[in-house]
Amino acid sequence: MKIKNFNQPRPKIPFRMFFAFLIAGFFALPSLYSQVKSNPPALTTPTVAKGSTTAPGFARITPEKQIYLDPLNPVQADYKADMSHLGFATQAAAESFFNNYSTVTVQFSVADKNTLNIHLAQSGSTQGWTVQNWNDHFLQKAQALKVSSH
């Protein structure tokens, strides 16, 4: 049986490398903080629903019925969203629900009981809105829906 010699020197991490990682972490913190601050974990950070995607032209709908557009993709006029996880029994039930929330700014049309088409009117007060503006708008709508359902 071979006995380890604990008196052998340990490999040393060069101070420069340690210092570089320390500095890089320090400069990354404000960026991470701003990301967390702008998207706090609540309704603004949706859970990814079954089958949803954030490819251009696709939106997500959370179980709380908040619509979420991916900030990595530019704003588009038309989106599709998977809503199979919302559990509408029929297409008519889905249409009935979303017809109550269509406005001049956002129009909803139900393709089938699992797919929602969303049209964003980019004119007037919404002209030039960014994805973040739209996500803030949808967050307010979801919060209002949550309050009205209680």
What does this structure look like?
By secondary structure, the chain is α+β, with helices and mostly antiparallel strands. The protein has a domain at 58-148. It is built from three helices and five strands, in the order H-E-E-E-H-E-E-H. The protein has helices at residues 15-38, 91-99, 131-148; strands at residues 58-61, 67-69, 78-82, 106-112, 115-120. The chain has a five-stranded mixed beta sheet with strand order 2-1-3-5-4. Strand 4 (106-112) and strand 5 form a beta hairpin.
Key features?
150 residues, five-stranded mixed beta sheet
Condensed summary:
The chain is α+β, with helices and mostly antiparallel strands. It has helices at 15-38, 91-99, 131-148, and strands spanning 58-61, 67-69, 78-82, 106-112, 115-120.
Mean pLDDT equals 77
Rounded to the nearest angstrom, the radius of gyration is: 24 Å
Oligomer: single chain
Instruction: Tell me the number of strands.
Output: 5
Span of the ends, CA to CA:
72 Å
Number of helices, counting only DSSP H or I runs of 4 residues or more:
3
What structural class results from the helix and strand content? alpha+beta
Q: What low-confidence regions span 5 or more consecutive residues with pLDDT below 50?
A: 40-53
Provide the helix percentage: 25-40%
